[in-house]
From TrEMBL:
SUBUNIT field: Homotetramer.
Organism: Aureibacillus halotolerans
Span of domain Nucleoside diphosphate kinase-like: 1-138
Enzyme class: transferase
Cell compartment(s), UniProt: Cytoplasm
Protein name: Nucleoside diphosphate kinase
Gene Ontology BP term (one): UTP biosynthetic process
GO cellular component entries: cytoplasm
Catalysed reaction equations from the record: a 2'-deoxyribonucleoside 5'-diphosphate + ATP = a 2'-deoxyribonucleoside 5'-triphosphate + ADP; a ribonucleoside 5'-diphosphate + ATP = a ribonucleoside 5'-triphosphate + ADP; dZDP + ATP = dZTP + ADP
Length: 148
C-alpha cells in the first residue's frame, strides 16, 4: 500500500487546523498510520527541504518551518501521494483551487499550511526522516473494502 508524508506546517497548527486537515484525508478514505506534534530542528528542516537549498526562498523557508510546532503524519492508501497533493492544492494558495486546503485557507506561498511528499522517492525519504519504522501502525479497516 502506498504511503506519503504529510505535515501541518506551523501556520496550520497556530490556526487550529490540525483536526480539519486530518478530517480532509480521513473523509477521502485515506488512513493515518502515524502522527505526532513536534518542533522541527534546524538540521531536520535542512534535510527535509534539501532539494531547495540555494534557492532565494530557502532561508525564509527554514525560519518558517522551525518557527513553531508542526503535526507530522504518515498516510496510507491507493495513490495516496498524488491524492494527498490534490487535497492540499497548488503551492501558491492564491492559485490553488477552492476546495483544496491551500485554496480554502491560504493566501501566500510562504504560509501554505500543509506539506505533502511529491513522489514515491521523496515519500520514502521523508517518512524515514520523521519516523522510525516501528512508529508506523498499519492495520486493516473493514470499510476500506468499499473504496477500490
Ligand atoms: P511542500 O514541499 O511544502 O509540500 O510544497 P510544494 O511541494 O507545493 O512546493 P515546493 O516547490 O516543494 O516548495 C517548498 C516550499 O517552499 C516555499 N516556496 N516558496 N517562490 C517562493 O517564494 C517559494 N517557492 C516555494 C513554500 O512554502 C513551499 O511550500
Ligand atoms: Mg515540495
Amino acid at each position: 500500500m502506498q504511503k506519503t508524508f504529510i505535515m501541518v506546517k506551523p501556520d496550520g497548527v497556530q490556526r487550529n487546523l490540525i483536526g480539519h486537515v486530518i478530517q480532509r484525508f480521513e473523509r477521502k478514505g485515506f488512513q493515518m498510520i502515524a502522527g505526532k506534534l513536534m518542533v522541527v530542528s534546524d538540521e531536520l528542516a535542512k534535510e527535509h527541504y534539501k532539494e531547495h537549498e540555494g534557492k532565494s526562498f530557502f532561508g525564509d523557508l527554514m525560519g518558517f518551518i522551525t518557527s513553531g510546532p508542526v503535526f507530522a503524519m504518515v498516510w496510507e492508501g491507493t495513490n495516496v501521494i498524488d491524492g494527498a497533493r490534490h487535497i492540499i492544492g497548488a503551492t501558491n494558495p492564491l492559485e490553488a483551487t477552492p476546495g483544496t486546503i491551500r485554496g480554502d485557507f491560504g493566501i501566500v506561498t510562504h504560509r501554505n499550511l500543509v506539506h505533502g511528499s511529491d513522489s514515491e522517492e521523496s515519500s520514502k525519504r521523508e517518512i524515514g526522516l520523521f519516523f522510525a519504522p516501528e512508529q508506523l501502525v498499519t492495520y486493516q479497516k473493514a470499510v476500506n473494502e468499499w473504496l477500490d
